Backbone:
């Protein structure tokens, strides 16, 4: 059992207050709104949410839940503070962090008078770097030391209004972004009675994840709605269609296609997207999410082109040409587009792809390749020319990883070369002066 102070008695603070009381903790909610304090101190929830009235009433009547505006006393009488104040958008769309920093100032001045270790867990949604600023504020005001006298963690909240209490007790997982084990362990004990795996992660990862989750949820809604518009025009039941879509747990609702890296390609994805957006255009529909997938993909190719330009080398070696490893299919391959663009801009380009040999290209595949890279045969190198290829390339782009390259690893990552990695060729290499990963 812990003594807990919760800053903010809004949706997250009130639900947390009720749930943490139910889990056996002694909770004080610190609020600045007098009306909310008054309601909470009569056992009445200041929010509307299924099950909240009973939860707050019991917490108040039987478990010692109370509310106050006195931040100092609440901090002095607690081991852990959960920060649940609002983080609204400014008019420009930037995060307004003032409420968080005001709370940190309150906690900082209370900590001046506190001798025991205090854990601060920020449940509000905050951009990466905010926890560092919170630490600075508290250290400056309290003259105490992070990791010695107190610790600030990022502990994002995943609940949804409307099912908040159930979500609180059954989150997808609990994330604790902590700089020190002492704080992480305290939070782990508090969450040990909650039905979810606990992951201790880096602070900046915990800060960012909620934005990525919410962006994806918003993308899912927007995607499904655009599918709905097209279905309706075609006289197809969109709910039946999306139910079918959701049955595919292998490729649709899974971790497939969710690793950041290089652009997609191949004979199907772009072609089928074009056909789908053509239908929507013909039906006079606006489907901006679907329409912008190909431009987003092209932007990734342009991004890699800029990375190559930035190396200021004119001899470029590219490993991989087909749209993915293990196939010779060059149709709509982003590596073909990249090669074409580099040659067009006057770069000397050599390409190694063990699955692609000009002599073996046929039909549409060959036509596509030649129409984009006129003198393909001059670019392609064979396995027995790999030594020369590696020596030639002042900038080396790893667009595919092939077993045949493993014996050349020293040459690939030599100091004299700029390496641009699109596939995370080796997990243990991090971006440095010579090596740059596209997204790591
Ligand atoms: P809210 O506006 O309902 O509650 C915030 C409360 O903080 C208000 O009651 C306000 O009076 C109080 N407050 C502000 N400054 C204070 C201070 N200095 N001291 C004490 N109290 C103070 O906000 P919310 O919906 O509970 O969201 C809180 C945070 O949690 C936000 O960052 C939000 O993005 C995040 N979040 C919200 C949800 C949700 O479904 N609402 C879900 C996950 C995460």
Residues:
């Amino acid at each position: 059992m812990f003594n807990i102070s919760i800053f903010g008695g809004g949706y997250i603070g009130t639900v947390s207050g009720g749930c943490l009381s139910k889990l056996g903790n002694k909770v004080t909610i610190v609020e600045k709104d007098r009306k909310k304090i008054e309601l909470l101190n009569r056992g009445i929830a200041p929010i509307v949410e299924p099950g909240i009235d009973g939860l707050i009433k019991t917490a108040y009547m039987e478990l010692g839940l109370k509310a106050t505006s006195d931040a100092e006393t609440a901090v002095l009488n607690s081991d852990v503070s959960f920060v649940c104040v609002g983080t609204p958008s400014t008019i420009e769309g930037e995060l307004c962090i003032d409420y968080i920093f005001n709370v940190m100032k309150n906690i900082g001045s209370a900590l001046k008078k506190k001798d025991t270790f205090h854990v601060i867990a920020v449940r509000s949604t905050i951009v990466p770097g905010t926890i560092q600023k919170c630490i600075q504020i508290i250290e400056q005001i309290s003259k105490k030391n992070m990791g010695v006298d107190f610790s600030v963690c990022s502990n994002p909240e995943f609940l949804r209004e409307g099912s908040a209490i159930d979500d609180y007790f059954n989150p997808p997982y609990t994330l604790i972004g902590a700089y020190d084990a002492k704080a992480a362990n305290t939070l782990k004990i508090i969450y040990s009675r909650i039905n979810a795996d606990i992951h201790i992660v880096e602070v900046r990862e915990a800060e960012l994840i909620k934005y990525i989750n919410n962006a994806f949820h918003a993308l899912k809604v927007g995607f499904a709605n655009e599918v709905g518009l097209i279905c309706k025009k075609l006289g197809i039941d969109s709910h039946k269609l999306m139910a079918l879509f959701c049955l595919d747990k292998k490729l649709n609702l899974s971790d497939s296609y969710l690793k950041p890296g290089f652009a997609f390609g191949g004979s199907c994805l772009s072609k089928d997207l074009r056909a789908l957006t053509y239908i929507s255009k013909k039906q006079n529909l606006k489907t901006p999410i679907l329409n912008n997938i190909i431009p987003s993909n092209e932007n990734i190719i342009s991004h890699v082109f800029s990375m190559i330009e930035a190396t200021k080398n004119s001899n470029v070696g590219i490993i991989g040409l087909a749209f993915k490893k293990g196939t010779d299919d060059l149709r709509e391959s982003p590596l073909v587009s990249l090669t074409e663009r580099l040659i067009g801009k006057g770069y000397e380009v050599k390409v190694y792809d063990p699955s692609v040999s000009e002599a073996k290209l046929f039909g549409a595949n060959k036509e596509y390749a030649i129409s984009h890279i006129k003198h393909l045969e001059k670019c392609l190198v064979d396995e027995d020319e790999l030594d020369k290829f590696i020596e030639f390339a002042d900038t080396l782009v790893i667009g595919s990883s092939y077993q045949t390259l493993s014996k050349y690893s020293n040459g690939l990552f030599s100091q004299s070369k700029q390496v641009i990695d699109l596939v995370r060729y080796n997990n243990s290499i991090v971006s440095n002066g010579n090596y740059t990963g596209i997204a790591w």
Remarks:
- The chain has a mean pLDDT of 95.
- The radius of gyration is 28 Å.
- The longest strand covers residues 3-7.
